[in-house]
C-alpha cells in the first residue's frame, strides 16, 4: 500500500486559538480532584469567528476582524541565589481550569546563582531554574520559544505548541548597567517577537537597590531603553513595539513612612495608605521615561524583604523596610507613534490589554523576595491568519511507508537550505528537542499534488506507540514555522536479541553496565558515574563492555602527577596494546613521507603486543592490525586498553616485581619472548 492521499484525513497545521477571558481576579488553586490535568491539547477556536464548515478544504483558514489571545502570564522572581523549589505549578497558574489556561508565559528571574563554578556548569548544561520550568510546563504543551541570560538575570518565554508558527521575528538583547555598564549583575534582558503580526517585547530588569537610589534607577532604565536595538524596521527600539511588558526586581521603595507604620498597614490590610508613598507610583506621574506605562492595583503585601524560609519580614539587624520591589507593568504604543514608510503602521490594527490578575505568592520561601505573577488578556484588531508553512500528514503511521510529509510554503516565506522538519513527541520542551528530523526540500524538491514532500526513513522512526507532532523549523527565523496536530505512530518494536550487532535492540540496562572513559594526563574530568548519559554527543565511539581508555605508561611517564600509580604498570594479566617509543618519534616524518615509511627497513620493526591469559602474541608490521594507529581513530595518543574489573583489582606490590612473558621494555626485540600455552586462544 502506498502513502495516504491528502483526502484521507490528513493532520494539518492547527488554526490559532483563543478562549474568552474569565474573571478579573486570581482563582484559588483547585483541589486535586478538580484541577485540570495535562493531556492532549484540544484544537482551539477563535473568539467571535465562525467555525469552519465541515465541507471546507483542509487546512481551514479562518478570517476574523477581532482576535483575543486570552491569557499571557508574566512572572517575576528574585530568587536570591537559591536552589529551585520542587514545584512551581501554583506560581504559573497551571491548575486553574481550562477556561483560564495560559497561551503564553514569560518568566523573569533575578539573582540566579552566577558564581564562576555555576556559570561554567550552566554554560555546558541548562541551568537548574530553566530545567525546572521546562519540566513543569512541557506536560501542559508549553514550548520554550526563547531565552536570554545576563549573569544572574534570566528571561524565559514559553507558548503553546500550536501558537509557534505565529510567533516570528524572535530576537533577544541585554544591557549591563552594574559598575558603570561593565558588570551584568544589574541591567535588563529582553525577548521581542511578532505575535500574530503584532510586535511585542518582554523586558526583565534588575535595577539598583536602596531607598536613596531612585534617580539611579531612572537613569539605568533610560539607558536600557536607549541601548537595546533590534534588527528590522517594524520595531527597532523597545518602545517601538506595539506592546511592552516591563517587569523584574525594579527595587522601588516606600518613602517617608516609618517601618512601624508600614508593618501596621500591612497587618491591618490598609495597603492603599502605602501606595501614594511608593516611589514607582510617584515616578509614573513625574518621569517622562515612564509615560504610558500602566500597572494594576497593589492589592498584595510588599514582596521584600523576608527572612528566608519564612513569611516574616526582615528581623535582622538591618531591619529593611518592606517594599513592593517586584513589579509588572505594560505599555501600549500610542496611535501614530513609530509610523513606518508612507505614514503607515508596521503592525496591523490597534490592540487593548486587560489585566485579569496581579498577585504575589507567599507560599514560596526559598528567597527573601516573594514571586509576583500577572495574567493579561490581549485583544488584537487583526491577526496573521495563515502560518508560514502548512504541513499535511496522515492520522496514523502504522507502517514505515506511511511516513510521508507534505507541506506548502506561504508566499513570501524566506526558506533556507538549512531548514528541517522535526518529529517531536507530544510534550517536547523546545524546538531542538526532536526525536528525528529530515532536511526540508526547496523548490527543486520532490513535488506532489499538495506541494512539496519528504519521507522519513524507517531507521529514523520511533518504535512502539505514541503521539507525535511534526514541526517545520526555519533556520532564518530560528523558530518553528509550521506544526501539525498530534497524530499516532504505531510501529512494531524490533525483537530483542535478533542480532548481536543490532544496537537498536540494546536496553538501557545494558548501557548502564558499560563504561567509557577518555582521560588525558592530569585530566580534571568528572567521574563517568556522575556524568549524564543523555548529554553525550559522541555517537561515533563504539560501546565496549567494561572498557577503559587511558594514556599508555610511556605518556604517563611525562606526567607531573604525584600519584605513584602513574609510574607503575598494572598487573601483567591486563590486555595491553603498546607502540614502541621509536615508532612514536617517527610519526611526523611518516606523515610527511608516507611512501618512504612503507619501504623503510626500520619501519618494519613496528609491532604490537597483545597479551591475554598468559599468552604473548606478536603481530608483524605486515599485519593490518599492527599498522593501525589509534590516533587515526580520533582517540587520544598512545592509548592503553584495560578491563575495569582488572584495572581496579590487583595492583603490583613492588615496582621491581617482574612478570615473565608479560612485560616488554622499549628495547625488547620484536620476537616473542614466550610461546603460547596449549589449548589457549588469543
UniProtKB/TrEMBL annotation:
Q: Where in the cell is it found?
A: Cytoplasm
For bias type Basic and acidic residues, the affected ranges are 580-596
Would you tell me the Gene Ontology cellular component terms? cytoplasm; plasma membrane; ruffle
Q: Where do the Inositol polyphosphate-related phosphatase domain residues begin and end?
A: 71-385
Domain of life of the native organism? Eukaryota
> Which BP terms from GO are recorded?
phosphatidylinositol dephosphorylation
Keyword Transmembrane: yes or no?
A: no
Q: What is its EC number?
A: 3.1.3.36, 3.1.3.56
In the UniProt record, does the keyword Cytoplasm occur? yes
Function as written in the Swiss-Prot or TrEMBL entry:
Inositol 5-phosphatase, which converts inositol 1,4,5-trisphosphate to inositol 1,4-bisphosphate. Also converts phosphatidylinositol 4,5-bisphosphate to phosphatidylinositol 4-phosphate and inositol 1,3,4,5-tetrakisphosphate to inositol 1,3,4-trisphosphate in vitro. May be involved in modulation of the function of inositol and phosphatidylinositol polyphosphate-binding proteins that are present at membranes ruffles.
Question: What is this protein's name?
Answer: Phosphatidylinositol 4,5-bisphosphate 5-phosphatase A
Q: Which gene encodes it?
A: Inpp5j
